[in-house]
Amino acid sequence: MDDNKNPIKHIKFSERDYFQPQVFPGGNSTPHKEVTDEFKQGLLESIDSLHDSLVDTSGIITIGVSAAVVELEDKATAKSNRPTGLFNDDTCPFFGDLGYSKFLIQISDQGLSALQKKIERSNSKAATKDISAIKAITKYEPAINVSDDIEVISVRLFRFNLAESNAVMDQAFEKYIDAMGCSWEKHNSRVVRIYRVSGNTQALMQALALFSGVQSVISSRCIKIQPMIGSSSDAQPATMVPPIDGVDYPVVAVVDSGVSTSCTPIDPWIVGRTSCVPAQYKNDNHGTFVSGIISNGYNLNGQDSRFPECQAKVFSVEVLGDNGGDLYEIVNAMYEVAKQHRHIKVWNLSLGGDGPVSMSEISTMALMLDEFQDRHDCLCVVAAGNYEGVPRPWPPVADFEDGISTPGDSVRSLTVGALAHVDGFVKNEEPSHFSRKGPVSNYVQKPEVVHYGGNIMLLGGQVITLGVNSVDVNGLAINDIGTSFSTPIVSAIAANLFQEIGERSTPSLVKALIIHSANLIHSIDVEHKPYFGWGVPQQTNSILSVQDYESTMVFEGQAQKSFEVEKLPFPIPECLRTVDGKVRAEFFITLVYQPELDVNKAFEYCQVDLQVGFGEVDLSGKFTSRVPLQKGEHKFETDLVKSGDKWSPIKVYQAKFPRGVDIEDWRLRVKVLDREGYEAQGVLVPFSIVLTVRDIDKEQPVYNEMSQLMDQHNWEVSDLVVDTKIKV
Fold first, then answer.
1. Do 321 and 392 belong to one domain?
2. What number of helices (H) and strands (E) belong to the chain?
3. Which of 433, 369, 430, 456 is nearest to 192 (CA)?
4. Which residues does 306 contact at the CB level (< 8 Å), separation at least 6?
5. CB neighbours of 336 closer than 8 A, spacing ≥ 6?
6. Which residue, 542, 575, 602, sits at the end of a domain?
7. Domain count of the chain?
């Protein structure tokens, strides 16, 4: 078989691969700190204060249900240590969080009274431990983050555990803003309650704090169009090729400014348009540039082999103008297009907010994008955002406010950062001086990947742009810089993966393949991962085929509570074993899964944690994974989350055994962990695992031997891409 033409294998888990492991309950009754009479009295006084907040005085609008914040001791945040004996349906139940150690409770007059009695009468060890877990109980203060633009605002209301309470709250709020003389629209989200409010917003902003159901307020027009700072290349026509007749190209929805109708070279690549931008604000520069890269990135950039040859057509979703974009209108426009064009699987969002997202919540637009992707079974590819302060050198020599911007914290999306492709202010292949870093809330890694987004050179006080090339509104060659322009490169790769894989393709699988391909050829230091993610993904055809000295397998299944999944035994080619039977090889594993999400939670947004183990079972029956996620010891839950990717829906594992590892029978195992209070029984969590086993010396016939072994073990296996002809 020709070099680099072996197809990836697709393996299904069978019913016999699922089993119920023995469960060992955790936790103990040791208090987290001494509980004094003074401490208990302080808690009771805090509860009295919360009672007062529920009374309709001083103009406060309440429906008898509101939110408060319980801050826990660091050691009490883990599932087995939560004080659920105090905070439950009989008192004031947990229903959300505000980041690590700060939890939301639903308060009512009756619930607070019951909570007071529990604290007053606490004598048992369990009750004392629950009280010792608490640092403080305080009233919730709405998060109001509104810029000077308050003409249109987006107001988010709490979603409590009872639908009846939520319905009453919505009605009360609508009546409230009607009385204020405001106009409003309610988004049709099934998981988050968002109102777009206009009209008398100046007065409303002063009064919103009086409505006890308000969770947060932001400027609705918070999404900005990136200023174009590049220049035309001597006014020469852009080097673009038209679509080839008879070739079925995938389509990427470009959620951006419009695409110019005066740009003749790009016309054949546009399959549809829609717009919600008033004529006076229309500006097609940015969307045209992005669309040029999706359709002709390789040709426009001098056929540089680092730019993928794959191409895609474009559906223009025009939502950005000179006055920016309204998050409510942007997401609504996406829904309208998705309903009419269900074949579109990839949505390019080269847009974002001004500053970094909060580490203590998922941004509003990210929540809306996650729901959109779930409802339409698609993948959003989102720019990490551009840091616009003093150019950041590499490596950074100081702390910069360069965290990911909204909606790059969307966990379902694939977020893309930028690298320089030529030497300049930073060196070639280093993160561009503007590319924003992760992680985001819950310490989820963002960006997942990077691609080429440009550089600058400082010469005599002047900034010279060393940008990637595309096309302007008149069809002329132009270059510019930004994560806006690294993102469409990845969108084109993703769209072609969806098309090549066909009916088997899922957003999780496509994400897993892209991330896995980047990790295979890059070795990113943990220190630099916040900027690089897992590196630069390969070309579509390279992602979908492997060398003779390696075998890449895709495993897909559905995890569920109380069950684990295992491939036993997992065959290892004899060509990878030394004369004394050790396995001398390198292993790469990428896991991507689709956990249920809870929009009331920031730190605990992902409700299920999946982990992959690849290793052995000893004589005592204990399983030990030999391909680690990372190295290091962890003391508390926060350490596991920060550095161990716990609860992150993407996990990457890697190990190299140059001296061999003495394991006869290997096992691949998937473990499931669910959040406290999450009723996950019977809930199926789709997951995709991409596993590569490789000969370190790149000589042995790993692919052929592995294929034979899978057949011998009667695995349900087939080629991932049935038609192995790769289109470019």
1. yes
2. 14, 34
3. 369
4. 421, 452, 536
5. 274
6. 542
7. 4
Looking at the DSSP bridge assignments, the partners of residue 466 are 455
| Model confidence, pTM | 0.94
| For residues 5-19, average pLDDT | 90
Tokens of 622: 């204990």
For residue 232, being part of any structural domain is answered with no
**3-state per-residue secondary structure call for 478-529:** EEECCHHHHHHHHHHHHHHHHHHHHHHCCHHHHHHHHHHHHHHHCCCCHHHH
A 10 A CB-CB count for 670 gives 24
Exposure pattern of 75-102 as b/e (b: 16+ CB <10 Å)?
bbbbbebbbebbbbeebbbbbbbbbbbb
> What does the CA dihedral 615, 618, 622, 623 come to, rounded to 10 degrees?
10
Report how far apart, in Å, the C-alpha atoms of 89 and of each of 50, 84, 92, 121, 645 are: 18, 9, 6, 18, 31
* Tens of pLDDT, residues 683-726: 789 999 999 999 999 999 999 999 999 999 999 999 999 764 44
Q: What does the pLDDT read at residue 231?
A: 67
Final residue of a structural domain among 488, 512, 542: 542
| Residue 194: domain span | 148-219
Q: Do you find a cis peptide bond into 595, omega within 30 degrees of 0?
A: no
Q: What is the pLDDT of residues 584-595, one digit of tens each?
A: 999 999 999 999
Look up residue 239 and give its two tokens: 């080097």
538 plus 549 within the same structural domain: no
